[in-house]
Amino acid sequence: MTSLIIRAKELLENKTVQVVIGYEAGPTGVARPAFITDPAKAESLIYDERCVQNLAVYLTKREVKNIGKMAIVATLPVMRSIMMLISEQQLFADNIVVLGISADGKLLDIADNKVMQGYIEKSDLSNPEKYKGLLTEFNKLSPEEKFLYWQKELSKCIKCYACRQACPMCYCTRCTVEVNQPQWIPVKANTHGNMEWHILRAMHLAGRCISCGECGRACPVGIPCHLLTMHLTDQVYNYFKVYAGTSEKMSSVLSTYEPNDKESFII
Amino acid sequence: MARIGVFICHCGENISATVDCGKVAETIGKLKHVAYSTEYKYMCSDPGQTLIKDAIKEHKLTGVVVSACSPRMHEPTFRKACAEAGLNPFLCEMANLREHCSWVHEKNELTTQKAIDIVRTQVEKVKLNSALQPIKVPVTKTAMVIGGGIAGIQAALDIANTGHKVVMIERSPSIGGHMSQLSETFPTLDCSQCILTPRMVEVAQHPNITLYTYAEVESVEGFIGNFKVKIRKKAKSLDEKICTGCGLCTTKCPQKKIPNEFEQGMGMRPAIYVPFPQAVPNRPVIDKEHCTYYIKGKCKICEVVCPTKAIRFDQPDEILDLEIGAIVVATGFDIKHADFFPEYGYGKYKDIIDGLQFERMASASGPTSGEIRRPSDGQVPKNIVFIACAGSRDPAKGIAYCSKICCMYTAKHAMLYKHKVHEGRAHVFYMDIRSGGKNYDEFVRRAIEEDHVNYIRGRVSTVFERDGKLIVKGVDTLLGAQPVEIVADMVVLATAGVANAGAEDLAQKLHVSYDQHKFFAEAHPKLKPVETNTAGIFLAGACQNPKDIPDAVSQASGSAVKVAALFSQDMLTREPLVAVVNRYAPPMYSTCVGCFLCQSVCPYQAIEREEFKNREGKVVKTVAKINEGLCQGCGTCVALCRSKSIDLLGYSNNQVHAEVMALLNEY
Fold it and tell me: Which of B156, B101, B112 is nearest to B22 (CA)?
C-alpha cells in the first residue's frame, strides 16, 4: 500500500498528526498494530487481508491519546467506531485524521467526517455476510435450545475479558465487573457468573455494537460472543431502523424516546 | 456499631390478621445488630410514635425500621418522630408489611415468614443508611394555566387574585372553550354567554394574567417550582397591537365557505376570522390552511382594506421561553361526532346531529339565530328524538364510562325545544336518568311533568331515513321490552364526552399519567383529585373526565388553592434522595468516563458537565455532575451508567445489594 505509506509519511512530516495508528508485519508475519510517530518508519505500514483487528480500540487509550493528534487506518468498522466514539464524547472530531480503506483495500480520500459519514451511509451496515448464516441458524432455535447452547458455550469462559479489551465501545476506565463495593458480578469463572458477565456485556452494547466481530475473534476459548451483540444489532434495526455508528450526533437508541417508537416489545 | 430498632405495627387487624406479628418481632429481635424489636397495634398513633421516640433514646438506636404500611402513607410521620427523638430522619426506613404481605396473602406460616424476610431486608439496608440533610430549592411564583375554557378561566382568576402571576395558554384564537358554545345552562336555564363573558373579559384585563391565545405548549422541562416551558405562539398573521378589531377584513375576505368550528360545522366563516362575537381577544386570525394568499400566493384583500395596516403575512411562529412554578392543566374535552355511529348512518343523515350542534342551534347567536330548524331543509321539526348514552356506557364501543353531563343536557335540550316549538313533540330514549346534583333531579322532573317530554326507557337499535323522515327504532323496557318506532324529523345524539385529540401528546410533554381513554389521571381518586402524579402539575375540568360546569369550576378553584399553597413558600424543602457521580483523588477524579448517556436519559435535565483542569489550565478530564436542585432521585442514570459511577443517596448500590443478599443468605 504505497499510497497509504506516502499519506502517513506526509501527515507525520508536516506535523498534521503526531501518531499514525496502522498495521505492520510482526516477526512471524502476523499483522499487529503499529503506532508510527517517526515519518521514517512509515515504510513499515501494511494493509492486506491479514489486517483484521479493529484499531479504533486504541483511540481511547490514554497512552495513545497523550501522543497528540492521531491518524488511523480505518476500514468500515473502524470508521463506524469513530462515529460512535465521537457521539459518546470519547473522541473529538478535530483530533483525528481518518485514512479510510475501502472494502476492496484501496485508500479512500476521507477529507473530513462529513465525507466519512457519506461513505458509511452508502455502505452495507448490516451484520457481516460471514456471520449472517450463523445468526439465521441460531434464530431458528427454541428459547430452551438457545439457553442450553449458551450455557454450554459460556461454561468455557475463563473471564479473561479479552472480549472487552478488543471492543472499541468498551472504553470505560473502570468496568462494572471491577466494582467490588458491592460485587454484583462474581469474580469467579463459573457458568452462572459467566452468563451474568456476557448478558451484561451484551446489554451494555445493545444499540452500540458496530458489528466488527472483534470480541468473538479475541476469545481464546472460541466462544462466539459476537453473536449476542450482533443479534441485538439486528433487533435494534428491526425495531428502530437504526444502525450504530452512522453519524457523530447519534443519540443512543435505547436510552432515548421518540413518540413514534414501536412498543411491540412491551408485553 | 449499628444498633437498629424494629417496630412491627399490627395496623389494627390489617397486618396482624394474617401475619403473626409477635413472631416477627421475636425473630427479628434475635438478629445481629438489632438492639430492640417490638410490636404495637397502631404505630402511627401518638402512643405508637412515643414508643419509637422513647426506644431511640433508651436503646441509643442508630437506625429504625418501622414495619407497617406503604411508605407513601406514613413515611413522613415516622421520619418526623425519629427527628423529634434526635435521630436523623433518613436513618428511618419502612418495611411494607401491609400492601406487600398481609393484604395479599392468607394467614399461614409462609406469610409470617415473608414478613420476616421483608423486615430483614430493611434491617440490612438501614445499617448502610447515612444521615442526609434536606435540600432547599427556590420557587418561581408564576403559574401556567393550559386551556382557556371555564375551568382554566376560573383557575387563572383565582390564582391571579391571590396576587401571583399567571400565564394562560389557549390553542384556539379565543378563550371561552365549550361553555362559550352553549345556549343555556342547566339547571337554571340562564344564558351561558351572559355568565361566561364577564369572566373572559376579567382574564383579559387582569393585571396578573398574561394571555396567549393561538398558542400551544412546545415542551416542558424541570420540576415543581422550577418548570422551564417553551410556548409556540402560532402566527396570527396580524399585528395585534395595531389591529383595532374593526372586523372589516372579515367581511371582505373572498373565502367565505369554510365550515365554522365554533358553529360545529353548521355555519360558514371566512379565512380571516374572529371565532365568535364575544371572543377574547377580539382580534382576527388568518387560517393559513384556507387563506387564498397562503394557498395561491395572491389575494391580500384583507391587507388592502385594513385601515390600520395590521396584516402581517410573513409573521413567523414565535417561541417563548417561560419560567413557571406550577401548572394547571385545563384542556377540556371533546365529544364523539355522529360519524362514530354506524347504527345511526355514520353521520350521513343531515338531520341527525350531536348535542353540541343542538346547543349552537338553540343559541341566539347561532347559525339559525336560536330557532330549531332541520339542517337538511330548514323546516321546524315537529317530532324530535333525543338519544342519551350515544356511545357512553357502551363497552362494545370502547367507552364503558358514563359521560355524566348528557342526562342533564338532554333534559335541557328537550325543554328548550318545547319552549321554542310549543306544538312539537320531544322524545328521550334513556338507559337511566343520572341527575345527582343540586336542583338537578327537579330539573329533569320539570322537563317530564311540566314540559311533557316523553321519556322512554330503552335503547335505540337503529335510525334510518324513509321519505325524508327519520325512523327511530328502539324498545321501551318499562313496557316489557315492547318495540317502539318513532317517525322523527330530527334526532339529537347525546354523544360520549371523550378526551381531546392532543391529550396524549400533551400528557407526554408534561410527564403526567393518563388513563386508557386518554383522560389525565389524578394522583389519588379520592384524596388527591386535583393533583397529578407529577408534583406541581394540577388538573382542572373535563380533561380529567367529562364534567359539568359547577364541577369544573369547583375543581379549578381547588387546583388554584394548591398552586397558592405552593407559592406561599419562598423555598421548597426537598428530600435529599438524589443521585451523585463519584469523585476520587487525581488523576482518577471520577470513574465516570464522560459518555454523557446519562444526560440524554435524565428526565429532569439535572446532569451537567464538570471539567477538571491541570496546573496549566488544560482540561484533563470531563465528567458528569448532578445538580441536586434539579435531581428528583428517579435513579434512571444509576441504572444506565455502565461503569457504575453514579449512586443514589438513600438507595445506594450497596444498600440495594445488602437487601438482595439478606434475602439470599441464611440468617
Answer: B112
Could you give the 3-state DSSP secondary structure of residue B362? helix
Burial grade of B471 (CB within 10 A; 0-12, 13-18, 19 or more): middle
The answer to whether residue B343 scores a pLDDT higher than 70 is yes
> Looking up cell 377540556, which residue turns up?
B332
Q: Which residues of A33-46 are buried (b: 16+ CB within 10 A; e: fewer)?
A: bbbbeebebbeebb
What tens digit of pLDDT does each residue of B506-517 get?
999 998 999 999
Cα separation, B475 vs B478, in Å, equals 9
Q: What is the mean pLDDT of chain A?
A: 93
> How many residues comprise chain B?
667
How far apart are the C-alpha atoms of B426 and B428, rounded to whole Å?
7
Q: B533 pLDDT band (50/70/90 cuts)?
A: confident
- Tell me whether residues B642 and A176 touch, CB distance under 8 A: yes
> ω into residue B134 within 30 of 0, thus cis?
no
Other CB atoms within a 10 A radius of the CB of residue A96 amount to: 21
Rg from Cα positions in chain B:
31
Residue B243 CB neighbour total at 10 angstroms? 22
B135-234+317-332+511-572: CATH superfamily: FAD/NAD(P)-binding domain (3.50.50.60)
Per-residue confidence at B1, pLDDT binned at 50, 70, 90? confident
pLDDT at B548: 96
* Cell output for B53: 421516640
Q: Are A204 and A253 in contact (CB under 8 A)?
A: no
> In the CATH scheme, what is the code of domain B579-648?
3.30.70.3270
The pLDDT of residue A258 is 77
CA dist B330 → A3, B139, B170, B560 (Å): 68, 22, 10, 12
Q: Which three cell numbers stand for residue A125?
A: 451496515
CATH code of B4-134, in short, is: 3.40.50
Torsion of CA B493, B494, B498, B501, to 10 degrees: 40
Give the residue on A whose Cα is nearest the Cα of B652: A182
Inter-residue contact A34 to A22 (CB < 8 Å): yes
Q: Is the pLDDT of residue A267 over 70?
A: no
pLDDT at A1: 67
Smallest Cβ–Cβ distance between B591 and the set A173, A184, A252 belongs to A173
Integer Cα distance of A57 and A85 in angstroms: 10
Contact A171 B593 (CB under 8 A): yes
Q: Mean pLDDT of all residues in chain B?
A: 95
Cβ A259–B595 below 8 Å, yes or no?
no
Which chain B residue shows the shortest CA-CA distance from A251?
B600
> Which residues pair with residue B571 across a beta bridge?
B138
Under CATH, domain B335-498 is a member of which superfamily?
FAD/NAD(P)-binding domain (3.50.50.60)
Determine the average pLDDT of the residues in B551-574: 96
How many CB atoms lie under 10 A from the CB of residue B43? Answer: 27
- CA-nearest residue to B653 within chain A is A182
* Inter-chain CB proximity A255 and B595 less than 8 Å: no
**E-assigned strand segments in B477-618:** 482-488, 490-495, 497-499, 537-539, 571-574, 579-581, 607-613
Q: ipTM of the assembly?
A: 0.90
**Angle, helix B355-362 to helix B406-420, in steps of 10 degrees:** 40
As a whole number of angstroms, the distance between CA B457 and CA B428 comes to: 8
Q: Which amino acid would we find at residue A100?
A: G
Domain B235-315 architecture: 2-Layer Sandwich (3.30)
Condensed to tens digits (0 to 9), the pLDDT of residues B104-116 reads 999 999 999 999 9
Tell me the β-bridge partners of B210: B167
Interface residues from chain B to A (CB-CB < 8 Å):
505, 508, 588, 591, 593-597, 600-601, 622, 640, 642-645, 653-654, 657-658
In degrees, rounded to 5, the angle at the alpha carbon of residue A179 between the alpha carbons of residues A174 and A185 is: 120
